[in-house]
Amino acid sequence: MLTEIVRFAWAALTGHRLRTSLCVLGVAVGIAAVVMLTALGEGARQYVIGQFTSIGSNLLSILPGKTETTGAIPHMGGVANDLTLQDFLALQREIRAAQLIVPISMATETVSHGERSRQVAVIGSTPDFLKARELRVALGDTLPPGDVERGSAVVVLGKTIAQELFPGQQPVGQVVRVGEWRMRVIGVLEEIGTQLAVQMDEVVLVPVATGLRMFNRSSLFRILIKVRSSRDLDATCVEAIRILTERHDEEDVTCITQQAVVSTFSSILQTFTLVLVAIAGISLSVAGIGVMNVMLVTVSERTQEIGLLRALGATRGHILWVFLVESVLLAGLGGLVGLMTGLGAVKLLVWVYPAVPAQAPWWAVGSAFLLSVVLGGLFGVLPARRAAQLDPMAALQRR
Amino acid sequence: MMTLRDLLVFSGGAVLAHRVRSALSLLGIAIGVGAVILLTSIGEGTRYYILSQFTQFGTNLLAINPGKIKTFGVPGVLGGTTHKLTLEDAEVVKRISGVEAVVPMAMGMGRVEAEGLGRSINIFGVTSDMPVVWRFAVAQGSFLPAEDVHRAVPVVVLGPKVKRELFGDRNPLGQVVRIVGYRFRVVGVMEVKGQVLGFDLDDSVYIPVANAMKMFNLDEVMEIDVAYVSAQVVDRVVEEIRRLLTDRHRGTEDFTITTQTAMLEVLDDVMRVVTLSAAGIAGISLIVGAIGILTMMWISVGERYSEIGLLRAIGARPRQIFLIFLFESMILAMLGGGLGVALGVTGSLLLTMVLPGLPVYIDEQYLLISLLVATGTGLLSGVAPARRAIRIDPVEALHAE
Amino acid sequence: MIELQHIAKLYEVGGQPIYALRDTSETIQSGEYVAIVGPSGSGKSTLLNIIGCLLRPSSGAYVLEGQDVSQLDDHALSHVRQHNIGFIFQSFHLLPRLTALGNVALPMVFAGVPSAERQARALDALESVGLADRAQHRPSQLSVGQRQRTVIARAIIMHPKLLLADEPTGNLDTSSGQQVMELLELLNRQGLTLLVVSHDPNVARRAKRVLVLADGQIVKRLTGAEFPVSSMPFSQGKTSEDETSRC
User: Do A218 and B217 touch (CB under 8 A)?
Assistant: First the structure.
């Protein structure tokens, strides 16, 4: 029975090619917009998550300072109580779950060699920094291991900095000026690109104690802790805060887990995507109204046919299904065309601009199609009911 | 020739003849227009809100930050320059003619305590000029005294929220608070200002900048805010600051000057783009609505085959037939646009009632544009059906039944 | 008034040329009353449509009121129809959404007659067909006879010289058919040229002249009185296929 009804509806749709095409077009435009926006939004989310997970998801950061003000941006400005190298050593001694603990100091300085100079971000840290950030040295050595409180005058250059200061030369063993300091280049980092919006090819690394002295600071920028398993993240945060609170006599640090940051970003982007998709989805309701309108016309055009079908023994239910199926087919067809167009457009976009991280997730594809079918059903109900409620005698006699 | 009024009456009659169909067609356009208006209203509201966040500090304002490198698009987040941005730099800037007031600023976070109660909040190190430059008045008592910026006088002005948290309804003037362990005497309480760019200015305290630098171990200020007398002098003032500070920093320009107007322009542009993008996405529904009108007009031409034949027989020119159908489509779209404007405006107003915090601004300009765009789409979607109508052979049409 | 000189109308059907009308010449004087009869597919509708300026002949010349209209373009033909010809159809062609008054006034809308004048003239025309009291009724509220009288009012509203009636009584009962014919003849007596296409011998007999068509040609020219009373001078055999082949 259902296959008969579908075949019947299909014949009716192909009988009015232009009107069917226009309806399909309307639904397709809406679905294509939804698919494309979802792809862009989801792509952006995946990109951000990828950026974070590329440097490991089991990271947490201890920042100096604490604020109770809600909605404030943390770690801006100075702090009263320093986060010191001694704090770092204490954490290293006491936190068992930690795989790596990395102290970081950071500032902007001028790096120069002969005539060439430029301003760069200088990161003072330990060899573990490279492990935590999954960086490797391309030439020479990494930062010297050993006593963190001893700052030697050595520097590891980012790829771009090395190329700019030493074009066509071997930088390792040469001397550069960092701020007022003369320092020996001991290594060059591999090319990495951007990590978390910081161009890592344009930084220089120095031992953490050297950094603190160079920047004339007593407080670290932050302490990075990498734990073995993400299950340990929250507990480690609590423990680190406890240790530091004991040492400082007050709770004056902030602990941020990488996961918290990721999920915050992720949920912001997800909300953003959903809002955009919802806005685009308005067009689907408009397309649905279009389908309903055309179905109403179809019903009134085929009044005589309905009368005939009733005379031949079709029940009200049959008539209802005939028009409902037709409407669902119409919208479903639009959904299919829209999906193809949307996915095609996304492919084209990625092909033309490979940097754009656009990718339609399968759930979006599935639900977009389902949505079009539901749309057809929803907006088909009224016309189909009107058809089913026609009086067979009056319908037959109508011209 | 047929007058415009005749066209309207005739086409309008045809629109009215199919009430349900016409209503649905124009509803499609109305939803599109309504969505566009709602979104532009929210977008414009947000734009004005953000602009007002900045302009509340006045527009004749510029900021000097250490560092030329921009991290996260903001200069000097990481701090540290080859030559520090100092209080002396601020003093020099203050002497430039056309400069009204200068506030060197250093901030940090720390614990503020009084009588057993305490809060960890933002601590701003500023000078007596801050109320002038930030357009921010004292509600009670006075602001920091005008003294040599290098003198670290232990006085503090509280934000209203800090005052409430620490002192409740009691008078805090003359009382002593401990800020990161140092004793400060309260000389004033600021008026309510609210959150500005993520900083809750009400939940902050204000102390002399020299104190803040000592307290937080800072060897440079984070920002120097400069108020200048009028927009005419801005270029000269910026140049003068650039020249003087570059001189003082031994020939390197290791600081960034941002004028409020330049920042406002960038911000304004960004917000406009965001608003227009959202409106554009909502505009997709307008396209779908136009397709709906196209479909219905196409069907209508087919149904009115014999009517078209008659009109041709009694002497209607092809151009008149064309205009009749074009007008029908346009009337649908215009009514839809009108309904959409009503929907959008009502929606915006309802939204402000339900969510009073949401900034909504209805721009008449956008209303007019949406109405015009709707009418335009109606005209466009009427072209194909109208062309179909004039291609109908009258002889054939008269005999088709 | 009407001069048809070697008029022919040719259609291509599936690549084959088919003559709907071949080498037809006829002159109709101003004020005449002529009936055109013939079986379906004989070409009488084609002839009527050419005379009514709805169709252009494939060859030959058609001079209407001293003007050769056979090669005019669409726009100019519209103008000729508007001012010279009034149409009466078997199936009325009244717009259901307009009142009788609105339907009668319709030709004036396209001619750009000011709306106040339209009202007055349309009401006059309705009065002259005896329907002044039905002015605000819609076609569906009128009897078929009243509908056809409305159509006649519409046909004369632009003061044409020529009335073309295609089966004017085809959808009417005998008495209202009689009424309609009397109305048309009254207009003829007032000076309008009247051309009636009909199957009905009773209608044809009323005309002064009868043109009998067959196979796209005028095969007989009779006076109304000469026309046979009871049956048509041709068989009613093949109707429907020919009816469609006309398009």
Answer: yes
- From the list B93, B69, B99, the residue with the least C-alpha distance to B81 is B69
Chains B and A touch (3+ CB pairs under 8 A): yes
The token duo for C231 is: 């049956």
- A187-207, pLDDT tens digit by residue? 999 887 766 656 778 889 999
* SS3 state of residue C106: helix
Where do the domains of chain C lie, and which CATH numbers do they carry?
2-245 (3.40.50.300)
The DSSP element (H or E) to which A215 belongs, if any, is none
Phi then psi dihedrals of residue C109, to 5 deg: -60, -45
Cα(A154)–Cα(A185) distance, integer angstroms: 6
What are the domain boundaries of chain A? Answer: 2-51+263-397, 81-251
Based on its alpha-carbon atoms, the radius of gyration of chain B, rounded to whole angstroms, reads 33
Interface check C75 vs B, CB under 8 A: yes
Nearest to A77 among B181, B222, B284 (CB): B222
- Choose among A78, A122, A284: nearest Cβ to B218: A78
Size of interface A-B (CB pairs under 8 A): 192
- Token pair recorded at residue B92: 């020099």
The residues that bridge with A110 in the sheet, in sequence order, are: A119
> Is C233's pLDDT higher than 60?
no
Cβ burial of B49 (10 Å; 0-12, 13-18, 19+) is middle
- C226, with CB counted inside 10 A (0-12, 13-18, 19+), is exposed
A18/B298 CB distance under 8 A: yes
Q: Is the dihedral of CA C79, C80, C84, C89 positive or negative?
A: negative
Asked whether A37 and A273 are in contact (CB, 8 A), the reply is: yes
Residues of C in contact with B16 (CB under 8 A): 97
Can you tell me the ipTM of this complex?
0.84
What confidence tens digit (pLDDT) does each residue in B184-224 have? Answer: 999 999 998 877 666 788 889 999 999 998 888 777 888 89
Half-sphere exposure of A90 (CA within 13 A, CB side): 15
Rounded to 5°, angle at Cα B30 from B27 and B31 = 90
Q: Where are the beta strands (DSSP E) in B91-233?
A: 99-114, 117-126, 138-141, 155-158, 176-179, 182-190, 195-196, 199-200, 204-208, 223-228
Against chain B, the chains showing at least 3 CB pairs within 8 Å are A, C
Compute the distance between CA of residue A353 and CA of residue A356 in angstroms, rounded to an integer.
6
**Residue contact A108–B81, C-beta within 8 A:** yes
Asked if B10 is an interface residue toward chain C (Cβ–Cβ < 8 A), one would say: yes
- Angstrom CA distances, B211 to B124, B155, C45, stand at 10, 9, 107
pLDDT per position as a tens digit, C39-51 = 888 888 899 999 9
Q: Which single residue is written with the structure tokens 């124009």?
A: B26
| CB A358 within 8 Å of CB A40 | yes
Q: Which of A152, A182, A155, A193 is nearest to A171 (CA)?
A: A155
Task: Please name every residue paired with C35 in a beta bridge, in sequence order, or none if there are none.
Answer: C196, C210
Q: What is the DSSP letter of A354?
A: T
Contact B122 A37 (CB under 8 A): no
Highest mean pLDDT (candidates A37-51, A212-226, C42-56): C42-56
Burial of A292 (0-12, 13-18, 19+ CB in 10 A): buried
